[in-house]
From TrEMBL:
Broad class of enzyme this protein falls into: ligase
Organism: Schistosoma japonicum (Blood fluke)
Residues given in the record as ATP binding sites: 326, 391-400, 425-428, 455, 482, 488
GO MF entries: ATP binding; glutathione binding; glutathione synthase activity; magnesium ion binding
Protein family according to the UniProt entry: Belongs to the eukaryotic GSH synthase family.
Enzymatic reactions: gamma-L-glutamyl-L-cysteine + glycine + ATP = glutathione + ADP + phosphate + H(+)
One Pfam family this sequence matches: GSH_synthase
Name of the molecule in the record: Glutathione synthetase
């Protein structure tokens, strides 16, 4: 059966590149059980998160105050900040911004639940086959003790909006093959993330043309530039997104280029319009550039600056990249900072705040955590390192510290300026369930059932000019699951697997 389902997955395009060839991307055999009310709650607050981070990115005073201590110790962030500072002084700038975001959550089991309630929740979510025997629970109270807690908010190169749209029909096929056929379209909801993100990119193209007219410029046929890494393994996810875009608007030209190519391949005219391969670029969509190794030399940083200073609409712009840092996320988890962007008596404020677990900076001078909080968190972490995760100011996965490694790292940095580079976060305690992992090996041999946990991603798009919001929407959902014993969850990196929700 696993071989057959794996063959369907390949035919549905659930793929990655390995050694230059297509290979089955790790995915679950069946969709995994998720409470319907919690998925809907996460979707309902996505627009609030889109707006929150847009407001943060537009607030220079806030960015400066929060990031200043980290910029001193982090060369990568310092380079981003320097580009931002130069762009702010330019006479000609593009103030239209596009965000294609993803908010990631885990479903957290409350620590102080009575044992009977805990066991009831665990039993109801332990496997898809068991969950299929009961109807969907529509009452919020049924899931008391289980809540969504944010892992992080992503604003650059959010992966799997393309393949996330394909995994739902794949899982419906798998359920049918396993004899589960009742209400499949309801239990495994459609995801239209590729459609929604492609619509947002096309809207940005139209806004670019309108903006050129406002500046008395006459645009030629406009193109979208997708900036990719030199060795991109997740290319089929890109293709799924751009395939949707081209089906909607066949006349749009799409270019894929690396920073390395753009060192000689881009040109700005006297009005700062961007041209690549003699094509006028309306939107620059970054699928790379979120880690230091994307910028090996000053020439690459200069390419980044030229793209940012151009009239093309950036996704994300440099301000969004600065807002998308761990220290900003830690600051927003504190009521005194969140209230700068939403009124404390608003539903948006309450809903956003409820998703945060405790987060601590390790230096009082950063004015996020005070000395008492820091001392408590450090002492507690050294006693119970499995209850925490240590996060550096880095995106892309695989950078965090857990368990005994965390404790040793914490001891080594706590008295040095390097501590400003890290955030200490209370670890989310999710429920576990049973599923199977399909990968290239499952084409030849059956895999065993695994205890797994899942991370729920909610896609969102925002298109804005300063305080004028043209588009703000929830754009779909995604599950990424991993074996219980795995700390990291990157799919292409091999830590986790693509999944979809089976609503309970």
């Amino acid at each position: 059966m696993q071989k057959l389902v794996s063959e369907f997955a390949v035919s549905n395009g659930i793929l990655k590149v390995v050694d230059g060839k297509p290979s089955l991307l790790s995915c679950t055999l069946l969709p995994s059980p998720v409470p319907k009310t919690l998925l809907h709650h996460a979707k309902n607050i996505q627009c609030d998160f889109n707006l929150l981070y847009h407001r943060v990115a537009m607030d220079h005073e806030f960015l400066d105050a929060i990031l200043k201590p980290v910029v001193v110790v982090d060369p990568y962030l310092r380079s981003l900040w320097n580009i931002y500072s130069r762009i702010r002084t330019n006479q000609v700038t593009q103030d239209i911004v596009l965000g294609l975001n993803r908010s990631d959550y885990m479903l957290h089991l409350q620590e102080d639940l009575c044992n009977a309630k805990r066991q009831t929740l665990i039993h109801r979510l332990q496997s898809t086959k068991l969950a299929a025997q009961s109807d969907i629970e529509t009452e919020d109270e049924a899931w008391n003790g289980l809540s969504i807690k944010q892992v992080e908010f992503n604003m650059i190169a959010c992966s799997f909006c393309g393949l996330g749209q394909r995994i739902a029909p794949q899982h419906r096929i798998a359920l049918s093959l396993h004899g589960i056929s009742k209400d499949l379209n309801t239990r495994v909801p459609d995801c239209f993330s590729a459609d929604r993100f492609s619509d947002a990119l096309l809207s940005a193209c139209r806004m670019y043309v309108e903006d050129c007219s406002r500046r008395s410029l006459v645009p030629t046929k406009v193109s979208i530039l997708i900036v990719v890494g030199d060795n991109e393994g997740n290319i089929y996810d890109h293709r799924a997104l751009i395939g949707c875009l081209l089906l909607k608007s066949p006349e749009v030209n799409v270019l894929y280029h690396s920073f390395n190519y753009l060192k000689t391949g881009l040109k700005l005219d006297s009005n700062f319009r961007l041209f690549v391969d003699n094509q006028e670029i309306a939107v620059v969509y970054f699928r790379t550039g979120y880690t230091p190794d994307a910028f090996p030399d000053e020439e690459t940083w200069n390419v980044k600056y030229q793209l940012e200073q151009s009239l093309a609409i950036k996704c994300p712009c440099i301000q969004y990249m600065l807002a998308n840092t761990k220290i900003i996320q830690a600051a927003l988890s504190k009521p005194k900072y969140l209230s700068r962007f939403f009124q404390p008596d608003s539903a948006s404020y309450v809903n956003i705040l409820s998703t945060f677990v405790h987060q601590y900076t390790l230096d009082e001078e950063m004015e996020i955590s005070d000395s008492t909080e820091i001392q408590y968190a450090v002492n507690d972490c050294l006693l119970r390192p499995d209850d925490y995760v240590l996060k550096p100011q880095r995106e892309g996965g695989g950078n965090n510290y857990f368990g005994e490694e965390l404790a040793q790292k914490l001891k080594s940095i706590i008295t040095h300026s390097e501590r400003k580079f890290y955030i200490l976060m209370k670890r989310i305690q999710p429920y576990t369930f049973e599923n199977y992992i399909l990968n290239s090996s499952s084409m030849f041999e059956e895999s065993k059932a695994r205890k797994m946990v899942t991370e729920m991603g909610i896609f969102g798009a925002i298109l804005a000019r300063k305080n004028h919001i043209f588009l703000n929407e929830c754009s779909g959902h995604l599950l990424r699951s991993k074996p219980l014993e795995s700390n990291e969850g990157g799919i292409v990196a091999g830590f986790g697997c693509l999944d979809s929700p089976f609503l309970v």
